[in-house]
């Protein structure tokens, strides 16, 4: 899909203000409501907009401990990675899972839990029990400086 300046502007706004009304979005990008809505639908249909989400305050929910885990695997086979990927995807405390290179680890996970007891349970009873996991090294987040969901629109 070829993006023009209106499409780019729509994407910039909608990433940060997902609940914006079509009328307000149209006003801000300089279009009338009907063409604006058609463009949003086209961006959705093309797969550039993959969904809309509410961002929930973790601390207000009692989730105060965030950690980054570096996970090492015993074998680098497609089957081993596929099993890890599907298993870790089903764990609600895992916010992000990245297959990485350039480290001693194979994966980096970002997890969030209530407290250290909950973290210990997650690590010992879920993460390290995944077939093929041979190591888990944790770093605890002291303070989150940047937390973006919006990507830059070129």
Show unreliable segments. Answer: none
CATH class of the largest domain: Alpha Beta
CATH superfamily of the largest domain: Lrp/AsnC effector binding domain/regulation of amino acid metabolism (RAM) domain
How far apart, in Å, are the first and last alpha carbons?
14 Å
Derived structural class: alpha+beta
In total, how many beta strands? 4
Number of helices: 5
GO biological process, one term: regulation of DNA-templated transcription
Pfam families: AsnC_trans_reg, HTH_24
Keywords: DNA-binding, Transcription, Transcription regulation
InterPro entries: ArsR-like_HTH (IPR011991), AsnC-type_HTH_dom (IPR000485), Dimeric_a/b-barrel (IPR011008), Tscrpt_reg_AsnC-like (IPR019888), Tscrpt_reg_AsnC/Lrp_C (IPR019887), Tscrpt_reg_HTH_AsnC-type_CS (IPR019885), WH-like_DNA-bd_sf (IPR036388), WH_DNA-bd_sf (IPR036390)
Task: Note down, in words, how this protein is organized.
It is a single chain. The longest helix is centred in the N-terminal third of the chain and has 14 residues, at 33-46. The chain has helices at 5-16, 22-29, 33-46, 78-89, 116-127; strands spanning 65-73, 94-99, 107-113, 133-140. The protein folds into two domains: 5-46, Winged helix-like DNA-binding domain superfamily/Winged helix DNA-binding domain (Arc Repressor Mutant, subunit A), CATH 1.10.10; 59-140, Lrp/AsnC effector binding domain/regulation of amino acid metabolism (RAM) domain (Alpha-Beta Plaits, 2-Layer Sandwich). A four-stranded antiparallel sheet has the order 2-3-1-4. It has five helices and four strands. A hairpin with a 7-residue loop joins strand 2 (94-99) and strand 3 (107-113). The mean pLDDT is 97. It has 154 residues and is of the alpha+beta class. It is elongated, with a radius of gyration of 20 Å. The protein starts with a helix and ends in a 14-residue tail after the last strand. Helix 2 packs across helix 3 (33-46).
